[in-house]
Amino acid sequence: MDFSHILNSKKITLSVVLSVFLSLLACKSFAIQSEKDSVNEKNAKQEAFNPTTAILEHIGDSHYWHVGGEIKIALPVIIFTEKGMESFSASKFNGEGVASGKYHNYKLVDDKIRVVDTDGNVDKEASHHIYDFSITKNVVALWIAGILLLIIFFSVASAYKKREGKAPKGLQSFIEPIIMFVRDEIARPNIGYKYQKYMPILLTIFFFIWMNNMLGLVPLFPGGANVTGNILLTFVLSTVVLLIVNFSANKYYWKHIFMPDVPLWLYPIMIPVELIGIISKPFALMIRLYANISAGHIIVLSLISLIFIFKSLYIAPVSVAFVLFMDVLELLVAFLQAFIFTMLTALFIGTAVEEHHH
Amino acid sequence: MEELFDGLLNDHLGFVVWSTVAFVILLILLGKFAWKPIMAAINDRERSIEEALLKAEAAKEEMARLTSENQSLLKEARAERDLILKEARHMKDQIIAEAKEAAQVEGARMIEKASIEINNQKAIALADVKNQVANLSIDIAEKLLRKQFENQREQDQLVADLLKEVKVN
Question: How many Cα atoms are found within 13 Å in the side-chain-facing hemisphere of A297?
């Protein structure tokens, strides 16, 4: 598969990237503006702008993808019920309305699917038997990031095949130092001579997190989802890390946990502590990534919300200046968090495969 | 608290499954079609660069070695030339000295020989002169004596004198 022609024009790529980032600030405010408008229309001024709900809505998952203005893309809803699977478009909910499916009638409560009875009241008992497997905004964002990663790295791989033994060029020369960085600064120093085996997982984790972080900073349609700031995704990533670390662990690692070099009477304390350590290390990874990315999104959205809290356009330059600053900082954080996650993963793998010579 | 966890699994299991599937597929595809060829290419290139560097270093060393060898050869040749020249000069001096000495010796010998010859010739000539003088003297004496003893009396006189002298003795 050769995708290199897609990204072969440097100028096109550069101008696309630039335009995306330049339009980012404006669009963020548009999104909230329209949100506010629609809220106002419905509540007819009775309710003031509530930044908390607006922000949580933006960083949360949804069955719609808000493109801008009044345009919302309704995403497919897939539900596993006790009777079988059913799927329909989220547009069927028509906002807060009731959608009638094959087996149940459904309603969105805080963007969560609940079964409703014939009177339109939430049936809690029945809701506990359905599983929401919808293609939500975060799932789509995840796929977009995945497809982008595949395009980029397949084109880079084909460039390596085409230009075998030559110096890297174009996108390849942008990606190669990053790959070398992951190899020389993350994998090698932390894992040691066995690093080669873990390069694929480390590179995938690194670029996956980075790409999702970066796309999360883009407020235009294909970006803007808070994927890496979703604790479920970081949970999945850290579970992968947990499995890899413990399945590649050698006898020294297990000896360290079950037969540490401490007096015997300390074992009742040491062994539980070590066992908690197995879980707490990936748990820290999960919380760190989730908290950092969510915090970044929340700060940017809060700054934008200032305009609506003050109800004045004159506060906009201040907000924009701060948001610009935050976005630049977030660019750094996006890389930094990907780096930290990957480095700690490498470190945990390193401790698991380390050979001790006592 | 109960509300927070209410329907947690029902709402969120889907996303966990979707993201796991997406990540695993991504990992497999990238691992097989991207990381493997990319890492292999990078490693190959690194190895070839390292080899090239090593070769360049070796070539440099070889070059330096050759240069120093040339230098030492040149130096040696120069030294040898100097030595040869020196020897030649020495030999020339020696030959000249020897020739001079030989010439001197020969000259001296010839001079000596010549002086001996001269002496010999002189002696021969002197002897010859002596003979001539003797012969001449004898001739003169004979002629003188003949003239003296032309008369008998004088002869007798002489004999008598001589006898007288004998008697005395």
Answer: 30
Which residues does chain B have within 8 Å of residue A211's beta carbon, measured at their own beta carbons? none
Task: Read off the tokens for A126.
Answer: 């029945």
The neighbouring-strand residues paired with A113 are A108
How far apart CA A89 and CA A87 sit, in angstroms, is: 7
CA distance B69 to B59: 15
Q: What is the pLDDT of residue B82?
A: 95
The amino acid at residue A164 is: E
Give the gap in angstroms from C-alpha A124 to the nearest C-alpha of chain B: 9
Neighbours of A28 (CB within 10 A): 23
Q: Give the number of residues written for chain A.
A: 358
Range of the domain at B15: 2-168
Q: From the CA of A160, how many Å to the nearest CA of chain B?
A: 6
Residue in A with minimal Cα distance to B11: A132
Contacts of B39 in chain A (CB under 8 A): 179, 183, 196, 199
What is the least distance, in Å, from the CA of B41 to any CA of chain A?
6
* Distance of alpha carbon A213 from alpha carbon B54, whole angstroms: 42
Alpha helices (H) along chain A = 10-43, 51-59, 124-127, 137-162, 171-181, 188-191, 195-217, 231-247, 251-258, 267-310, 316-353
Distance of alpha carbon A90 from the chain centroid: 22
Residue A274's closest CA among A255, A299, A291? A255
- Count of the separate structural domains present in chain B: 1
- pLDDT, one tens digit per residue, over A283-336 is 999 999 999 999 999 999 999 999 988 888 888 999 999 999 999 999 999 999
What's the pTM? Answer: 0.73
Q: Percent of chain A at pLDDT above 70?
A: 86
Q: State the DSSP H helix or E strand holding residue A66, giving kind and residue range, or none if neither.
A: strand A64-68
Q: Cβ contacts of residue A306 below 8 Å, gap of 6+?
A: A315, A318, A319
